[in-house]
Amino acid sequence: MTSPTAPEREPEIVLEPMRATHLADVLALGRRVYDTSVKPYTSWSLSAVARHMDGEASACWVALAGDRLAGYVLGSMGFDQRTDWGNLEWIASAPEYQGKGIASRLVKACCATLTEAGASAVVTDVESRNTASAALMRSNGFEATVSVTLFVRRSEP
Ligand SMILES: CC(C)(COP(=O)(O)OP(=O)(O)OC[C@H]1O[C@@H](n2cnc3c(N)ncnc32)[C@H](O)[C@@H]1OP(=O)(O)O)[C@@H](O)C(=O)NCCC(=O)NCCS
What we know:
CATH architecture: 3-Layer(aba) Sandwich
Radius of gyration: 18 Å
Oligomer: single chain
Bound molecules: coenzyme A
CATH class: Alpha Beta
CATH topology: Aminopeptidase
Strand content: 15-25%
Number of helices: 4
């Protein structure tokens, strides 16, 4: 009789501060989950990531399943001219890890870092059709305030 193969155990998901060694995986996951051909995702780039990592009170975290990137969040102090607001700008969970509470853990970690750095509020913007992101933010204490609609006037050919 052959011995049954032990089922593989899912590695525990661990949150860590984002480091330069995570950058390639973070960029690649962003390209998988954002449609970078449309606003507000057109600005997804290495410099967008680096701006938060280099920013005052960087609040950038990764969620790791062993050595695999399961998710990330990018935030830092300052939003428009408000230096006392924190900005949680980018967040993603890898599709195979979605629905497990990873993004909620990342939001909490990012907000805790920003609050500790003195943020009087944390601001994030959510594209109007992104119901998953809106549900994530609402369930973590964010309330919808002002909406901004991008109007586009196309040039005649
Ligand atoms: C939005 C996103 C980050 C959520 O990640 P996730 O790890 O699956 O989220 P969680 O499992 O932590 O869920 C958090 C909450 O959001 C809700 N939620 C998540 N996905 C949802 C969906 N598709 N529809 C409705 N609610 C959803 C969950 O039910 C949960 O609510 P609860 O706390 O009341 O139970 C993920 O869908 C994603 O990466 N999307 C693509 C990238 C993106 O659009 N990022 C946001 C813009 S930068």
